[in-house]
Specification:
The complex is a heterodimer. By secondary structure, chain A is an alpha+beta fold. Chain A has 2 domains: about 130 residues, Rossmann fold (3-Layer(aba) Sandwich), CATH 3.40.50.10070; about 260 residues, 6 Propeller (Neuraminidase). Helix content of chain A is about 15%, strand content about 40%. Chain A is built from 4 helices and 30 strands. In chain A, the strands form 7 sheets. In chain A, strands 1, 2, 3, 4, 5 and 6 form a 6-stranded mixed sheet that branches. The radius of gyration of chain A is 24 Å and the shape is globular. Chain B is α+β, with helices and mostly antiparallel strands. Chain B folds into 2 domains: about 70 residues, Immunoglobulins (Immunoglobulin-like, Sandwich); about 120 residues, OmpA-like domain (60s Ribosomal Protein L30, Chain: A), CATH 3.30.1330.60. Chain B has a 5-stranded mixed sheet, with no helix packed on it. Chain B has a 4-stranded mixed sheet with strand order 9-12-10-11, sandwiched between helices. A 3-stranded antiparallel sheet of chain B has the order 1-3-6, with no helix packed on it. In chain B, strand 7 and strand 8 form a beta hairpin. The relative contact order of chain B is 0.11. The chains are: A alpha+beta, B alpha+beta. The interface between A and B is medium-sized, with 34 and 19 residues.
Chain lengths: ~450, ~240
């Protein structure tokens, strides 16, 4: 009886932790069980001297993408056999499917440069299924450049993630849009999802904030300070320049695309008090959704249905997260205390991620951390605990990652993590970098 | 020859006799006492130097009289027979001196012209107005996360209203600022509420809404960059800027 009580107590103590992890991992597609995956370095397929440099880029990128995916238990390279395969005929199954490697899956292949062309062959083998092992076999051709090697690695990684991650496309080819001050002004920048290829998009010399990429990736809405005040501006990624968008007067902030790309929600104080408005994607048919005194800002659409909007309202004092129908009816308060801002909706529509100073006030510790909340139950989990101010979380298109800004390393920088809070990594290091926004695919 | 010598002797005798006669006569008759003179008429003069002054400046009156027992100047009163005095007339004035004596009365006048001072060279009017604006219009400070104007800011607000009503031609901008805490987007909305809160109070106090532009800087342009309450309070403000 005593033994039973002790066990029961232990169960009570551990249950919330396990329960929490489960609903996040299930809800975000991270999966409770990770697939054990071996990814030996790809090998050269010919004697071209450029192969070594391109292989380094390819192998680093592929490993990083699969390690970042959040659904694999990666086999450490030190456990791998010395004779790694470059072609299917090289695979010795018993070297991979038994201890210490004990892999379920093996990704391998080769890379060769010839003239201006780069050729990559890659396979994914189910090494426990010796009779019919091949899950995937791909051949890629691109230019013989480091950029092409990197992009090819992203493509192959996304194929593997799609096959082994429940049919959800990977994010290795996705982009991040963000604000950087490294040119001396806050401008809109872009980078690959892993922090590579950072590049400046706008050159306005003012203050530009809150970049939001359209679902089809063709346009970027953001807020910028002009002579008359803060306006919503529209940048075309096809034309690489600003395209016209109406000015509404007052302070116009924080644009947000509906998931079908036909509407924009944003905050405007055109009548003297900030409210949430909706227009169509060209800025026509302006319609006000809220009528609360005090700040109303940072709208975001339910990414799955497009039928609800979450936003931040200061109507009761400190800002709180609310939801409403996309026509402005049925507003619901989601957070019950502290200072809660910057909501982002999960791709499956089930969760909100936001920034929260839960215990706000004189003498309170006042850490600003990232939390996710299950909308139906209002149950929440804290994802960051490492100090600093953590703000502007944004879901990845596969729902498994969250990108955010954090001051924990000193200045404001962009960090990424898995949606259960694990695997936190810094992506930017130069200047001040804030307000990351993940592309929709 | 004899006749010519006789002529000479006669002339010398004659001359000698005349000389002797004259000398004897003076000694014999002393001059009579002069008759008493009649009383002399007074004389008077009055000058002003300089005779043209700017308003607020002074000039010196100088006068001289003789044969006068009673000298006076209108507006000054009795004066010495000879003297000078500084005067500062507000307007152009004719000073009138009267000198009276046993021999009669004599007048003298001096005119002092007073001119208006030239206006001081006007500095460019906008600069003056801007300086006055900067000196008189006070920023309005807010509590953390609040945009209502608190009690201790009412006198600053009233001062702002008074000045801006006296200068109805001044256009200006109210910038809403926040401290570094909290989130970028929320602070921009909060700063907007602060700027509009100040604007509403001014308009309610009679300041023309058409002269006012509002803009929010959120926490993008802090005046003070330290992380303490004093610095945060400095940043939580509705800041007035001349022009819009």
């Amino acid at each position: 009886m005593k033994w039973f009580s002790a066990l029961f107590l232990l169960f009570l103590l551990l249950a919330p932790t396990f329960g929490q992890q489960d609903w996040i991992r299930t809800g975000t597609g991270l999966g409770v069980e990770k697939v054990r995956l071996a990814v030996p370095d790809f090998k050269p397929s010919n004697q071209d001297p450029r192969n070594a440099d391109l292989l380094k880029v390819f192998n680093d990128t592929l490993w990083n993408d699969l390690d970042n995916a959040g659904i694999f238990d990666m086999v450490s390279k030190s456990f791998m056999p010395t004779d790694t395969p470059a072609n299917p005929s090289d695979v010795r199954f018993d070297a991979w499917n038994t201890a210490p490697v004990n892999a379920s899956m093996l990704a391998f292949g080769n890379l060769g440069t010839s003239g201006n062309a780069l050729t990559v062959q890659g396979w994914l083998y189910d090494v426990k299924n010796v009779t019919s092992p091949q899950v995937l076999g791909k051949q890629y051709q691109d230019a013989a450049t480091a950029d092409a090697a990197r992009i090819t690695a992203h493509k192959f990684a996304d194929e593997i993630i799609f096959r082994l991650g429940g049919g959800i496309p990977g994010v290795a080819e996705s982009s991040i849009y963000f604000v950087s001050s490294r040119s001396g002004h806050k401008e809109i920048w872009a980078m690959d999802y892993d922090g590579a290829n950072q590049r400046q998009l706008t050159h306005l010399g003012s203050i530009s904030l809150s970049p939001r990429i359209s679902p089809d990736g063709s346009r970027l809405a953001f807020s910028s300070l002009a002579k008359g005040g803060w306006d919503i501006l529209m940048y075309s990624l096809d034309l690489n320049r600003l395209v016209s968008f109406p000015r509404f007067g007052g302070t116009n902030l924080s644009p947000a695309w509906s998931p079908d790309g036909t509407r924009l929600a944003f905050s405007s104080s055109r009548t003297g008090d900030s409210e949430i408005y909706v227009t169509d994607s060209s800025g026509g048919n302006l319609k006000r959704l809220t009528a609360f005194k005090g700040p109303d800002v940072s709208p975001v659409w339910n990414r799955k249905t497009g039928s609800q909007i979450s936003w931040v309202s200061g109507r009761t004092g400190l800002p709180q997260i609310y939801t409403m129908e996309a026509d402005g009816t049925n507003d619901q308060r989601m957070t019950d205390e502290g200072y809660a801002v910057s909501p982002s909706w999960s791709p499956n529509g089930q969760f909100l991620v936001f920034s929260w100073i839960r215990h706000y006030g004189p003498g309170a510790p006042g850490a600003q951390d990232i939390y996710i909340m299950d909308i139906a139950s209002k149950q929440w989990v804290q994802l960051t605990h490492d100090g600093g101010r953590n703000d502007f979380p944004c879901w990845s298109p596969d729902g498994r990652h969250i990108i955010f800004q954090s001051s924990r390393s000193g200045g404001e920088q962009i960090w990424t993590m898995l949606a259960d809070g694990s695997n936190q990594k810094q992506l930017t290091f130069t200047g001040s970098n804030t307000q990351p926004n993940w592309s929709w695919k | 020859m004899k006749q010519q010598r006789l002529k000479w002797i006669t002339l010398i005798f004659a001359l000698g006799a005349i000389m002797m006669l004259g000398a004897c006569k003076k000694k014999v008759a002393p001059p009579p006492p002069p008759p008493p003179p009649p009383p002399a008429a007074p004389t008077a003069s009055l000058t002003a130097s300089p005779d043209t002054i700017q308003k607020g400046q002074s000039t010196t009156l100088t006068w001289q009289t003789s044969n006068a027992t009673d000298v006076s100047i209108d507006g000054i009163g009795a004066v010495q027979a000879i003297g000078s005095q500084q005067v500062t007339p507000a307007d152009s004035t004719t000073y009138h001196l009267t000198a009276k004596g046993p021999g009669g009365t004599q007048d003298a006048t001096a005119r002092v012209t007073v001119t208006a001072p030239p206006p001081p060279p006007p500095p460019p009017p906008s600069a003056t107005e801007e300086e006055l604006f900067a000196r008189n219009v006070k920023d309005i400070y807010f509590d953390y996360d609040k945009y209502d104007i608190r009690g201790d800011q009412q006198s600053a607000l009233q001062g702002d209203i008074d000045f801006l009503r006296q200068h109805p031609n001044i256009s200006f901008t109210i910038e809403g600022h926040c401290d570094e805490r909290g989130s970028t987007e929320y602070n921009l909305a909060l700063g907007d509420n602060r700027a509009n809160s100040v604007k509403s109070a001014l308009v309610q106090g009679g300041v023309s809404a058409g002269n006012i532009k509002t803009i929010s800087y959120g926490k993008e342009k802090p005046l003070c960059t330290e992380s303490n309450e004093q610095c945060w309070q400095t940043n939580r403000r509705g800041h007035f800027v001349y022009g819009k």
